[in-house]
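Shape is hard to put into words, and the shape of a protein is harder than most. The fold becomes a row of whole numbers, each drawn from a learned catalogue of backbone shapes. The outcome of that step, for a single protein, is printed below.
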Amino acid sequence: MQSALLLRLLQLASPSLPIGAYTYSQGLESAIEQGSVNNESSAKAWIIESLSIVADFEAPIVWRLLKAFSARDAEAVNYWTECFIAARDTAEFRAETIQMGYSLAKLVMDLKVADESLRTILANQSEIPLPTAFACAAEALAVPHEAALLGMMFSMIENQVLVCVKSVPLGQVSGQNLLLSLHAAIEHAAQHAQQLDDDELSNWAPGLSLLSMQHEIQYSRVYRS
């Protein structure tokens, strides 16, 4: 990848990007509260399982959205955006993706990095989830699709590791060791996501959905999901 494109990807995937990702745990805080995640080993098992869910649904939709934005196919963008929003099966998960999608979409518009056709497609969405905003931003910045998908998945996993470091808690060395050990799993998940046919996509994860719903009424919590 050219240096300029790599720098754009690093900026897009950075957890410091002001879209609020660090305020969400995606159900992990509930798992920590209940004791299912309590050390580096159980944290790794949780994250790998989460990664497999992402690889079966969210990542394939991001892949399709990247292709749709590249082709300036507004109908495909609308379809996959609606599919993703409809698949958010708890109030927290839905609010999470809409809030971060809105923030990233506003950033894309304010920075004026997208051409008129991309801005029009994005502006015509009644609601913008994070995958749609991310795919639009990646296309606007000319980030190669394979790299964009890896960057998105790495950013999600890095945030999960950060939650574990702060809340299990794990030490910084354990956190870095955990993140390093997940590189191969992220690469495999990204490749898997690119190969799925439309009728193979699945967000079936009842255990995660239950944890998310339990988190909505959890007595004490740090994260918004």
